[in-house]
């Protein structure tokens, strides 16, 4: 039936509002309660992508948001649909992802009597969303505008909307005057005495250091940081999600921190030697207990661009605003300066390079090295799943640009890499996307190979197959315990990839993996490269 034969419905107003906000894809699984909304999305030119699991759908939305900048959109049915999305919504909450969650809900007139699949949606999500609203016909556009503003107000996060079938299908009233301008933080005032004081402190310090986080990478602070370092070589450490804020091949880059005990032993020693630490768009949610109170005297610490909701570190001053703008204002007019005295930084760089150098001709290190070179040759965006391989990859990887590497680093859930890369690839079809997983993460998200195939996406999936939950096995060994509940059966992933309509290849050495990565980049559809490695590759090496 032609779209023109339909009246203008509440669902249409919501869908057109989301499209106007830059949303181009919706991810989820439909149920009877959201069929009208799914129809409205398609009429508004928002593509609905059928995922195999609602949590994976939320992560696809996160991947699309990371590369596209607009909020992600998750659509679920009531009850079990929304409940199955909880882990994905929690991931958006702790990863600071702007996400609109639209769930179907039973009609209000039935709620007091009818219990099938009925659960209190706002109560279910209350710890994980910035707000939860029920859409009403008279205020639908205003409700959406508010949801979008909340999702995009730092710290970004998910907002939930309940939409009943009758209201979705109801005729919309007069067009609402509500608009949704994107919030703009005021520019830093160069005359602000706090900035002037900090500029003077930076000038006077002998060992300043920048510890940068995801908000700095997302805000576009890379240019301002590079400009500051041109005037004075200040060492930079980032969280995992901020990798590439400074090209990690730069002499001032000490790479990423927070998850690897091997790296942290080197980096924490550098941090404690600093006499001024700038926390740039930094959120310690990515850090581990070893970073508790790990910074120098609080009088030496200044937070730029983040409002802290934690007690990990103390700081003498906090300047809130856009991290890129604050850093640019801080560096403006500053006189050139010298780097750290002595060879402390070069010694740290050499120690890190030695700690994560490939120890053998084949294994996890060698595979990650080949993936990195192939990805960067093609300008690819890479996602990595949780597990021992993520720690190793995040330390070995020399990111050349922000958001080159996507991962769940605050929530650290398994099963994230495949949907993150899929969402990114859908949002930017010309982008090469590569997902790197362990066998545990792949088996959690296997159904999304079907989503990948049906969506017509070209993507490379690399599985480092050690036949175990390697990180948990390491923790059991460290505690003096025997392994239990960590062995995996060694499935034939090559055959599974072909069963889902993709290509599968076994890569058991560097040369084969190198050749297959090149071939996969030229091939349409999904190519899964299974790389058999040993769990021992990670022992004492992460």
From TrEMBL:
Cleaved signal peptide residues: none
Name this polypeptide is given: Decarboxylase
Entry keyword set: Thiamine pyrophosphate
Listed SUPFAM superfamilies: DHS-like NAD/FAD-binding domain (SSF52467), Thiamin diphosphate-binding fold (THDP-binding) (SSF52518)
All residue ranges annotated as the Thiamine pyrophosphate enzyme N-terminal TPP-binding domain in the record: 9-121
UniProt cross-references to PROSITE patterns, sorted A to Z: TPP_ENZYMES
Family (UniProt): Belongs to the TPP enzyme family.
